[in-house]
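Subject: complex prediction, re-run

Hi both,

The earlier run crashed halfway through, so I resubmitted it with identical inputs.
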Amino acid sequence: MSDRTRIAVLVSGGGTNLQALLDAQQRGQLPSGEIVLVLSNRADAYALERARKAGVPTAVTERRQYPTQAAFEEAMLKEIESHGVQMLILAGFLAILSEDFTRRFPERILNVHPSLIPAFCGKGFYGLKVHEAALARGVKVSGATVHFVNEIPDGGRILLQKAVPVLPDDTPETLQKRIMQECEWVLLPQAAEMVAASLLDQNEKEI
Amino acid sequence: MSDRTRIAVLVSGGGTNLQALLDAQQRGQLPSGEIVLVLSNRADAYALERARKAGVPTAVTERRQYPTQAAFEEAMLKEIESHGVQMLILAGFLAILSEDFTRRFPERILNVHPSLIPAFCGKGFYGLKVHEAALARGVKVSGATVHFVNEIPDGGRILLQKAVPVLPDDTPETLQKRIMQECEWVLLPQAAEMVAASLLDQNEKEI
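This time it finished cleanly. Structure:
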């Protein structure tokens, strides 16, 4: 067995959360894990460029290339298995994953959500919509949550949360930026290391 | 007109939030307001004793003494009006207030809720139940919210929120204590002063 947990990061867009993970790895803050694959569901995702710059293998599986959701997920699984991946991190991954898929990786898929779950989460709450809803309700505190992915949208076990103030002049964009910089980019590498270390421990016990 | 906004605090129990308000007033941290009445819906509420020790007038109106909700609220209104009260603070007040009642005091009734609204609020979420639900969901951050009371349970405009960490060994009781001490007792006097000052400004403009 490897002495580090093998991680795939799933992306769809700019990949700022991927960059936070790559930077943490570079700084030695992910000692129990190694990012061995960046998998995108869009060929034009800038996240792929970030992966290449960091020397991490990439793969692209676009939903439209496959006749069914099952075939799409089968193609992703093939990539994941061929790289010996043991845990997944969703970093701005906007494709749907079926219950069949998520059940293959119980407590091995991490997601980051830009609110303090259970506030402003579940169906329809993604991207700027989350921050628009928070400002519409007039909350004075928001933040981000890293949680395991299961069959319930934003319903899996919570690993880490961090709060930041909502300021009187905030727009959805300024709130999004504060939560990314102060919460998501901080929490995601921490949670990745926690889970990677815990999976290493499990593997050692199994040997 | 008085040069301070006249405040009634409504209580049902031990009155620790009332004490936080009385202490703030004593320390000069409520310069725009004056607590002129403590109104309890229970004759045996220890909060009444706290009011007497601070020299604040008290009144008791128990629901069971009145044939209808309307008659009960009429009795409360009589007390409130006879003391020239301009704003109300619910500090652990467990009786129901009708829409007719709350509509008489638009943005003039404050409540403190022991969670970060919109998490763990609304019907059925009071006292320890709030903290039991937070621990059951496994959140890592909780806190308190001071908001205006309107016809929607915990649905009024939010004034202040403060977050604290949930710790791995927390019980509902330890979490409740941390949120009371670090959030509720801090936020409630701050919010009281904010609203009292804002009502003074309004009154000056009306004169």
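The longest helix of chain B spans residues 172-206.

- K.
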